Here is the input.
Amino acid sequence: DRLIKTVPEVASVYGKAGRAETATDPAPMEMFETTIQFKPKSEWRPGMTQDKLVDELDRIVKVPGVANIWVPPIRNRIDMLATGIKSPVGVKVAGTDLAVIDRVTGEIEKALKDVPGVSSALAERLTGGRYVDVTINRDAAARFGMNIADVQSVITSAVGGDNIGETVEGLQRFPINLRYPREIRDSLEKLRVLPIVTEKGARLVLSDVADIRITDGPPMLRSENARLSGWVYVDIRGRDLRSAVKDMQRVVAEKVALPAGYSISWSGQFEFLERATAKLKVVVPFTLLIIFVLLYLTFKRFDEALLIMATLPFALVGGIWLLYLLSYNLSVAGAVGFIALAGVSAEFGVIMLLYLKQAWDVRIEHGTTSTADLLDAIREGAVLRVRPKAMTVAVILAGLFPIMWGTGTGSEVMQRIAAPMVGGMITAPLLSMLVIPAAYRLLQM
Here is the structure.
């Protein structure tokens, strides 16, 4: 917290170690959640951005044995509720033996640290927990007239405590918990001489009826699909999610030997991306098929419908170039922007082709069907579309530029939707005004 507070843009820092008193926050003791609140952007240093802040924080916070993952708090909670993974990518290793799972996750952590784009990789430690193990001696307990439940009840109430009542203070209610004082139960030796009084009045100590020792075990247990699992958290920066995960999967397959009966699954935001990609693989072709059918019903000719469909990929070039210039990685939001751009581009092409056909139909009605008349008709139809097309482009850009300049909540997602549209408003109109008339001439010759 003190290291983070040295950054001038940081207003406050609140850190938490371990888990909260709730079943919805399963966190081991080695996990620290730090919530950072920044000052208003007007007070930031000149040229400072959120990405630069994250890079600076990552350089400053260098603690041995601790890997940094920088995630917005709300997105972190949503990801944890949906997949359990608090980082962009998570690797889940499932099996039956915790020692083997711990070894495999450690090997995965080492292998992933060298993958380009991976800023940190951290495997949960499944060993290293220390437990006070009380093994009850049945024969010794029976000699004192006690059974297993009697000894367990003494241990539970004396060490863990029993709620014997409740106090009400205003609107708040607090349980009254009774147990032995800490000074007589804070070490193994003191636990062995913990006094016990039987129902018959016999006085003895806990070591008379139980064997007490410290044993090693897992600090926390996870299970999915009725199998024990260990997780590896991976943070990615400066690279798109899909290509980074593909490289990570390749590296893990090459460097990590997976024993029989154990499995690896990839989760986190990558899981959402895979689900969205699978849906887009169905939706996009089906949408293009519907567009083609509608174009055919409009023009009553396959060649003209194919002409509009063939121009769509070239109309998207401007959106691709703008994404490249802005250093945006292709995401689901960008794919949505390209779908919207394809719709506008198809509309441009349809209107241009309709004007060209109308101008040419007029020439046909008057019996003038020479090559010169075709060129005049194409020129007339194309020129009539210049002003309306310029107005359409101006209106679209006027609506999208505020999104590209915005910096409020949600602006990052909206900018990646709007960027393909902004870039496409350069190539799509040029394509419809220059290429479609030339292609229409070739169709009519």
Q: What stands out?
A: The mean pLDDT is 84. The CA atoms of residues 430 and 437 lie 11 Å apart.
